[in-house]
Amino acid sequence: MFSVNAIAATSATEPLARTTIERREVGPRDVLIEIRYAGICHSDIHTVRGEWGEVAYPLTVGHEIVGEVTEVGAEVTKHAVGDRVGVGCMVNSCRECDNCRAGQEQYCLDGATGTYAAVDRDGTITQGGYSTHVVVDQDFVLRVPESIPYEAAAPLLCAGITTYSPLAHWNAGPGKKVAVVGMGGLGHMAVKIAVAMGADVTVLSQTLGKKDDGLAFGASDYYATGDPATFEALRNSFDLIINTVSVPIDMAAYLGLLRLDGTLVSVGAPPEPLAVPVFSLFNNRRSFAGSSIGGIGETQEMLDFCAERGIVPQVELIGADEVNDAYERVLKSDVRYRFVIDVATLRR
Ligand SMILES: [Zn+2]
Ligand SMILES: [Zn+2]
């Protein structure tokens, strides 16, 4: 084991603070990554505050990690010292179940191992990316193409793949009308990726406050969900709706926006169950679905896609001592569009 600088939560209510955490020695199939940037995801906040269940403290979160490989184990073949790499929301899985074999490790039947607050296969509790270094099995490390700026690459590892996977699965592309609900970290990625896939994209946001950005990201329309006329105007319009918000929504109203065989996919997770009126599903043979990140192969495909198409998340860079303030701003939706920690500020 060796100690590295990190930012950790010591309880559900205390602010995060600088500390050191232990990383395992680099095993034969492990990669040591010197972390350069770490994104702040809303899930980090839910987790450190115990809102998604009990966690062990101290806890370091962060699952949008990019950095440089500085050491590899003897059996590592996929990565080399000096490579630009990334780590997303999972760092291990059973690798043997049907879902793992299908390249859908995020749906591992034995439970994929989360990048933080999870019990790893060796019994240790995983610690995330608000830290100077991380040791990860080579199979869960992604290649970050050179053309994606380092600091902007971080949000692709969660926000990027979380939106890319359902857009790809439900065939967003030319001739398809896609609505994105919410213009936060996930939503702004969903817009950029769906536009790059060739779909006609509409943003549904609480207000028109980010309309100029949405149109600049390539959306063709932008509507305020606070205005009831929106739901009348857009009835039976969309093939696919990606819902990125993590508060309950009026399911009847949103399902009513789907045209024949349309699907509403939730990627944001409100703590309470959603009430789904079944008659809203009968009309137009609609579907309601969920989606969780993406497999390792698909995450690499997403990174390569973003590099080819020049898709870059819009980030606000912060220092290690600004994380608590950033959390408050995330909770107020006051971020354009993802906070990213410059981990250089954690080295001193
Ligand atoms: Zn996340
Ligand atoms: Zn598995």
Automatic annotation (TrEMBL):
It is an enzyme of class 1 (oxidoreductase). Keywords: Metal-binding, Oxidoreductase, Zinc. Its EC number is 1.1.1.2. Residues 11-341 form the Enoyl reductase (ER) domain. It catalyses: a primary alcohol + NADP(+) = an aldehyde + NADPH + H(+). Its cofactor is Zn(2+). Pfam families: ADH_N (PF08240), ADH_zinc_N (PF00107). Gene3D superfamilies: Medium-chain alcohol dehydrogenases, catalytic domain, NAD(P)-binding Rossmann-like Domain. InterPro entries: ADH-like_C, ADH-like_N, ADH_Zn_CS, CAD-like, ER, GroES-like_sf, NAD(P)-bd_dom_sf. The keyword Zinc applies. One of its GO terms (molecular function) is zinc ion binding. The keyword Repressor does not apply. PANTHER family: ALDEHYDE REDUCTASE. Belongs to the zinc-containing alcohol dehydrogenase family. This is alcohol dehydrogenase (NADP(+)). The lineage of its organism: Bacteria, Bacillati, Actinomycetota, Actinomycetes, Micromonosporales.
